[in-house]
Amino acid sequence: MEPFFPSDRKMAADFLMHEKIWFDKFKYDDAEKRYYEQMNGPVASPSCQQSASTTSSGPGGDQNELVTRIANLEVENQNLHSVVADLQLAISKLETRLNMLEKSSTSHHPSATPPTQHVTPMKKVESPAAPPKKVELPSAPPAKKVGPSEADDEDEDDDIDLFGSGDEEEDQEAAKVREERLRQYAEKKSKKPGLIAKSSILLDVKPWDDETDMAKMEECVRSVQMDGLVWGASKLVPVGYGIKKLQIQCVVEDDKIGTDILEEEITKFEDYVQSVDIAAFNKI
Question: What φ, ψ does residue 56 adopt, rounded to 5°?
Fold first, then answer.
């Protein structure tokens, strides 16, 4: 073993002076923990307890951890006691309510039984007495009247035809009356004016070129006269390059005149009319 010199001791002291190790850190941690417990109370979260237990070392830190755990257990015990007391109160209330309901149900049952006892004998008394009277009243007359004369009357009644098929004279009179009424109805219906279906048509009559006499072409178009045709207003609409088309309106009866016949009649004027188109068609 080498001898320990004073110079070595001095060098060790100088080294420890410059060393940054904190040997008494756990004491300061315990003091800080106690201070904050006094400020905020003894209860601490588990994470804080774990951190304190890991950071603290020595017998002082273990005692503080036990104290905090005991305090937490006491608080939990108090909470459990309060919960149990609340549950006991709720159970007692439910028991009292069930007892009240049972008493009320038992009190209502005897009051409901007497009407059933009174009603049942009334039904038993009425059932044998009433039906025989109602059944015997309609069946009594035919049962009493039994004889040969009545049997003959029943046979005669069976021979009667309720629909009157055997009376030929009455059938002929009824047929005449029916025919007369049908004839009168047909006459009234024929006299009533029926609704006439009409249509409004707008025609585009196109000439051959710009030299066509449009006034003469309109005169030719209006010269077309048919039963159910009425000509209306007209105007000249420019098409392009100085050419104009004749736009004329007319009203026709649908049952008498069709658009094909109207176009054929207008296109017969080949000197003036090139084609005819339907610009608009509306039912009136």
Answer: -80, 145
